[in-house]
Amino acid sequence: MFPIRHSPATMLAVLMLSIPVIYAQQPEARAPTEEYVRTHYTKYEFRIPMRDGKRLFTAVYVPKNAAGGPYPFLMDRTPYSVAPYGEDQYPKSLGPSDEFEKSGYIFVYQDVRGRWMSEGDFVEMRPHIDDKVSPQDVDDASDTYDTIEFLLKHVPNNNDKVGIWGISYPGFYTSASIIDSHPALAAASPQAPMTDLFLGDDSYHGGAFMLSAGFGFYAPFFHPQAKPQTPAPTIPFDFGTPDSYKFYLQAGNIANLDKLYLKGSNWLFNDQFKHDTYDSYWQSRDLSRHMKNVHCAVLVVGGWYDAEDLSGPYRTFYAIDKFNPVTPTTLVEGPWVHGGWARSDGSHLGEVQFNAKTSEYFRTEIQFPFFEHYLKGSGATLPKALMFETGTNVWRSFDAWPPKAAQPRILYFHAGGKLSFDPPSEASGVDEYMSDPNHPVPFVGYTTDTVPQRYMVDDQRFANYRPDVLVYQTDPLEDDITIAGPISPKLKVASSGTDSDYVVKLIDVYPENATDPDNSLNGNKRILDAPPLHMGGYQQLVRGEPFRAKFRNSWEKPEPLSPGKQTDIDFTMPDLFHTFRRGHRIMVQVQSSWFPLVDRNPQTFTDIPYARPEDFQKATEQIFRQKDAASSVELLVLPKN
User: Fold this and answer.
1) In a shared domain, residues 392 and 511
2) Residue 486 domain-assigned (yes or no)
3) How many domains does the chain have?
4) Has residue 238 been placed in a domain?
5) Is 592 left (phi over 0), alpha (psi -120 to 50) or beta?
6) Are 502 and 549 in contact (CB under 8 A)?
7) Is 541 within 8 Å of 457 (Cβ atoms)?
8) Which among 607, 424, 456 is positioned nearest to 543, based on CA atoms?
9) Which pLDDT score is estimated for 268?
10) 194-230 pLDDT, tens per residue?
11) What is the pTM of this model?
């Protein structure tokens, strides 16, 4: 939802990612260049009137070299502040990356309605209005339209073309801007755009509340404001422990977090957990339903390992394609965390190496040429999909996504923890485990007070040995297997409870002779007496998602399970483009908790945010693997070259 939705330990990074001061300026990517900006750009500040009379604070940076113009506009609309404020105050960098700053653009940064120095009321993911009948019918599409009208008339030496980009929440505003787009809007890049917070983006995955990320963001940071103001320093939330597992377990239910710590002060957090079905609150905020009359070229960007907005890029890309078939639209996915393409070299995540500076490649060879082409007439056009294939670590282009050549193949669960493309032939077969919500399965194998971005590729051996986790794996692969597209678990289950979660994890198991890393971790020397990390047998998470059983038939109307009765749990996990190499194994783990990444299911059919201690009950979970009830995971597999 937001640049990085983490605990107080990372709140400064959250704020910095979304304002012009910070984009891509960390040592790997870009050195601070405040003096360069001051020397080459003149800053202006405007309070731009909207059609309903409210004024939005806007900072504009115009190249001093007038002879090099006319220049296109490149805009970023954000709820995270366009600081520094004051026409004599300059940021350290401008634009998505260094290339833009030196190429010559008129950079525009705007506080969105109701945030910081802009007037009006802030509404979380303000719903789009398709039919506007009066000047009071405003949304983020109309605010962008009115802003462009003003800029074209009041900022000289422009070439009548506008581009817009943004990551996470600014990605949402970018998506909103292209609906019924202004004629001057020529290029847009929604990056990790928040799209549907209940169906797979920040707030809910598979109907389960993303607990640690949600509270970790709202508690210290995203507070409502009554009037225009400059940002105050963020006060980190004191968890009282470095162990988020302990903190959230002791807190009890979700409502207690508000009762004990926020005390009703943050309606934004309350909205998140109180709307725990797919009601009108969430449906009205799904921009993909309104993605019509998109007249500009669009570059949609996402990361395979984005812990915040993993589904948003796909929903946005498919919606634009559906409603605007002639609009030039490209989807780019790389091996990145949330916004990682903007601020790192993209060469690794945790222990997993990609053998290429993927973020630098994106910035110089994809993003910059895209805007140059559509705003200046140079640069290059792009294919329909540019995707980084993990496992083999190569970029590949396609004329559709998923690739047309990809075919469904099904991995079946078998006795003895076997996983195979052959269906089971047994007349009966079932595996079971006891799930205890008072002793949930952790989502990482180490102590943390946040949601580490690396968790999405972390070693899963810690879970492999728990009795409440079922494990299935193939024999060592004789050939590479490349999956390209969504992953679809199809479970046949029975529970002794009236509700349960089913977490499915797809894992790449390295061979025992895999090469160990050197004595470093993300560039930092390891502690000398720490045990060495061995990649032999490493169980790399490549995709994992929860599913709350009460939503198996409807997101709007949850239904209890009938204890002991076999039922189908079918769902879809976000896309992946990954090659399981020859000699590796494919593993699937199944469990019923993933804490505190996901809130605890009491395993009784109840109002989960307000569940009482006695509602949290142990349950026996059965996973069937027989001929007439074969649990499986369906993959889209590319044929061998």
Assistant:
1) no
2) yes
3) 2
4) no
5) alpha
6) yes
7) yes
8) 456
9) 87
10) 999 999 999 999 999 999 999 998 887 777 788 999 9
11) 0.93
Instruction: Report the sign of the C-alpha dihedral through residues 213, 204, 353, 93, in that order.
Output: negative
CATH number for 166? 3.40.50.1820
Residue 267: per-residue pLDDT: 86
Residue 613, φ and ψ in degrees, nearest 5? -55, -40
604 lies in the same domain as 579: yes
Give the largest Cα separation in the chain, rounded: 80
CATH code, 544: 2.60.120.260
Residue with tokens 């995707």: 387
Domain that holds residue 620: 407-517+529-638
Tell the burial category of 477 from Cβ atoms under 10 Å away from its Cβ (0-12, 13-18, 19+): middle
Q: Are 3 and 80 in contact (CB under 8 A)?
A: yes
The position carrying tokens 């498919």 is: 318
Does residue 84 have a cis bond before it (omega within 30 degrees)?
yes
Contacts of 598 (CB under 8 A, 6+ apart): 205, 208, 209, 210, 211, 443, 501, 503, 546
* Contact between 179 and 88 (Cβ < 8 Å): no
Q: From residue 359, how far is each of 117, 165, 215, 372, 374 by CA, in Å?
A: 32, 16, 29, 18, 22
pLDDT attached to residue 224: 73
Whether 377 and 418 share a structural domain: no
Tokens representing residue 171 in the block: 């990605």
Element holding 177 (H helix, E strand): helix 169-177
Predicted confidence (pLDDT) per residue in 420-474, tens digit: 999 999 999 999 999 999 999 999 999 999 999 999 999 999 999 999 999 999 9
How far apart are the C-alpha atoms of 404 and 638, rounded to whole Å? 9
- For the chain, which residues score pLDDT lower than 50? 1-29, 519-524
Supply the pLDDT for residue 381.
Answer: 87
Query: Same domain for 362 and 502?
Result: no
Closest residue by Cα to residue 166 from 85, 219, 110, 221? 110
Domain-ending residue, one of 398, 416, 432: 398
Residue 2 lies in a domain: no
Domain assignment of residue 574, yes or no:
yes
Domain boundary among 342, 376, 398: 398
Q: Are residues 540 and 429 in the same domain?
A: yes
Are 317 and 363 in a shared domain? yes
Q: Are residues 436 and 457 in the same domain?
A: yes
Contacts of 73 by beta carbon, 8 Å cutoff, 6+ apart: 105, 106, 107, 108, 148, 151, 155, 158, 161, 162, 163
For the chain, the first-to-last Cα distance in angstroms comes to 38
Distance of CA 219 to the CA centre of its chain: 20
CA distances from 433 to 503, 565, 618, 631 (A): 13, 16, 10, 15
CA–CA separation, 509 vs 584, rounded Å?
Answer: 6
Structure-block tokens of residue 175 = 């998506």
Report the C-alpha dihedral over residues 127, 130, 136, 138, rounded to 10 degrees. 50
Residue 394 neighbours by CB under 8 Å, 6+ apart? 388
**E strand or H helix at 254:** helix 254-257
CA–CA separation, 421 vs 212, rounded Å?
36
Q: What whole-number distance in Å separates Cα of residue 192 and Cα of residue 220?
A: 23
Assess whether 433 and 331 both reside in one domain.
no
Q: Is 524 exposed, middle or buried (0-12, 13-18, 19+ CB in 10 A)?
A: exposed
